Amino acid sequence: MNITDLISGNIGSQAVDSIAEKMGVEKSQAQYVMAAAVPLMMSALNYNANKSPEQANGIQQAIANKHDGSIFDNLSSLFAQGPTDDEDKIVNHMFGRNTDNVKENLSAKTGLDVKKIAGILALVAPLVMGYLGKKKQENAGTESSGGIGDLIGSVLGGGSNAGGGLGGMLGSILGGGATNTASGGASGGLGDLVGDFFNQDKDKNAKGGILDALAGMFAK
After folding, report:
1. Which InterPro entries has this protein been placed in (predicted)?
2. What pLDDT does 157 receive?
3. Given this model, what pLDDT does residue 147 score?
4. Half-sphere exposure of 191 (CA within 13 A, CB side)
5. Less crowded by CB within 10 Å, the N or C end of the chain?
């Protein structure tokens, strides 16, 4: 399973259908949020992992203890219970001070109220974490195994932009406009696009255009 499977492949399609039904929203709305949220979440996690050893260790422990990838063996259980407070906390840990920014902009673009957006994000977040847990297990004992920053960096750097992948997404710019070069180079392509969304100087119209671009890359 690669990251585009999570967004628009078989897994993503199952998730979108279940989210739409559980949250009482249109499938197109759930699909839009999913397609925009996954790259935003991955980018935020990448930034957090490279921000400090403590942040990286926190993500590492969360994946090791709670998100081993087994969620994909029984997706129905996640959607049957609906969003929980614990899952909402994952979203807050991911986005930090940008949490309300993400919710409000997705709300403006989809027409869904912020509470609906919060619920959808809470269901998407454990899928993103579970994906990383699954990749970590797959990489265990191989040359590509390493710290959590290396793992997320490999996910973001892989794939092809033309094919809807996350190639070129090497980091993010969160709030202060500082480029994250921990993956070995300046962020570019999709990385710049996501970074611009988190840039506090961008207005809502610009952020909305970025969400449209992200959703357009992955929504089918």
Report:
1. DUF937
2. 64
3. 75
4. 27
5. C
CB 158 within 8 A of CB 168: no
Q: What is the 3-state secondary structure (H, E, C) of 120-173?
A: HHHHHHHHHHHHHHHHHHHHCCCCCCCCHHHHHHHHHHCCCCCCCCCCCCCCCC
Q: pLDDT at position 120, please?
A: 96
Q: What is the pLDDT of residue 146?
A: 61
Print the domain residue range for 185. 3-218
Q: List the chain residues with pLDDT less than 50.
A: 143, 158-188
Q: Are 14 and 75 in contact (CB under 8 A)?
A: yes
Single out the residue of 151, 191, 156 nearest to residue 3, CA to CA: 156
Number of domains the chain is built from: 1
Separation CA 29–CA 107 (nearest Å):
10
* Burial class of residue 188 in the structure, from the number of CB atoms within 10 Å of its CB (0-12 exposed, 13-18 middle, 19+ buried): middle
Query: Whole-number mean pLDDT of the chain?
Result: 78
Residue with tokens 């499977």: 5
- Measured distance CA(69)–CA(129) in Å, rounded: 8
Read off the amino acid at residue 110: T
